[in-house]
């Protein structure tokens, strides 16, 4: 239970850091050092390495995403939707939105 809570916090804060890094790198750096740092399991070498690599997001330009044909809004929406889908996997089906198409549930 504690692992699950910590991991969900980590995923949310990691995403928030990545958004901040695009808009305000200095604020993102402080967020990385203070808020995101405490959610990382530093005894896990893989998670520690992933955390250390996050700093590279501070040096990416915003044009990296627009070159792929995504506007900032589209990219942010897609990233947040992906985060939501990842978090939903940690909950039982009774607590999540339907996975199928809602139209299929309607009987005619």
From TrEMBL:
Q: Which InterPro entries match?
A: CTLH_complex_component
Question: PANTHER family of this UniProt entry?
Answer: MUSKELIN
Q: What is this protein called?
A: Muskelin 1
């Amino acid at each position: 239970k504690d692992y699950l809570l910590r991991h969900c916090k980590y995923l949310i804060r990691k995403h928030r850091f990545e958004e901040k890094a695009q808009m305000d790198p200095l604020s993102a750096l402080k967020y990385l050092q203070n808020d995101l740092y405490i959610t990382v399991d530093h005894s896990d070498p893989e998670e520690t390495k992933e955390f250390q690599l996050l700093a590279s997001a501070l040096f990416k330009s915003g044009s990296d995403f627009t070159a792929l044909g995504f506007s900032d809004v589209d990219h942010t929406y897609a990233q947040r939707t992906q985060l939501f889908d990842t978090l939903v996997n940690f909950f039982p089906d009774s607590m999540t939105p339907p996975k199928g198409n809602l139209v299929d549930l309607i009987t005619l």
